[in-house]
Amino acid sequence: MIEISHLQKNFGDNEVLKNISLTIPSQQVVAVIGPSGSGKSTFLRCINGLEAITGGTVNVNGHVIDPQAQRKELQKEVHAIRQETGMVFQQFNLYPHKTVVENVMEALLIVKKMKKDEAYKIASDLLSKVGLAEKKESYPSQLSGGQQQRVAIARALAMEPKLMLFDEPTSALDPELVGEVLKVMKDLAEEGMTMVIVTHEMKFAKEVADRIIFMADGVIVEDANPVEFFEHPQTERAQKFLQQVS
Ligand code: ADP
Ligand code: MG
């Protein structure tokens, strides 16, 4: 599903991602963890073309981001990746003046040019799936943070993505609301969605992820299954990180 080869990303003189290579098969759930500033968000944003990459290539489901390619070709590939990738951020970014169901319908109407009643039906089903059937006609401001984030997940799923990227989806939530969002993500994982999740929720990563990528200073320091990583971290860097977060 994802094949990253010698990925490099600079912001000016700042080398943020240094020669990262990684293959993620379909249906794998990958948790990306590591200290703040290590490049985790940038890494996710490079996967779906939100950041232009400096070097290497990113291949998502056969669509290739290659900075050497012609501009037009590159744009076409990035567009194709965006169509097939859902992304959920720490901040939910819902449209405040649209109802919950309208937020989920938006991409169906605009991008997929769907008829209104058809989009409404799909959006309603997705809202049921994330446990928000009764909130369809509410406005985002009337919802808790956990509910808003579940709407954001439903909205991302509306495009029927082949891949879901999550960037600290529970970091802005009050502790008692974290569980309901993680539950929705766990359900998605169990349905076989391919997922890359940047998270500080170590218990969730341990339980739900198939694989842990530990990043520090723009490189992958460890790449292991959760049991190996959490019980026998190989590097001093990871050992120290785990002591700090536990
Ligand atoms: P993480 O998500 O692991 O906390 P980030 O990917 O957000 O790390 O940031 C990694 C590094 O890249 C940091 O040094 C940050 O300052 C830098 N960075 C991120 N985004 C930008 C940007 N748009 N412009 C310049 N520097 C950036
Ligand atoms: Mg980040």
TrEMBL record:
InterPro entries: AAA+_ATPase, ABC_ATPase_HisP-typ, ABC_transporter-like_ATP-bd, ABC_transporter-like_CS, MetN_ABC_transporter-like, P-loop_NTPase
Membrane topology of this protein: Peripheral membrane protein
GO molecular function: ABC-type amino acid transporter activity; ATP binding; ATP hydrolysis activity
Cell division among keywords: no
Principal location listed in the UniProt entry: membrane
Pfam family, one: ABC_tran
Keyword vocabulary terms for this entry: ATP-binding, Cell membrane, Membrane, Nucleotide-binding, Transport
Name the UniProt record assigns to this protein: Amino acid ABC transporter ATP-binding protein
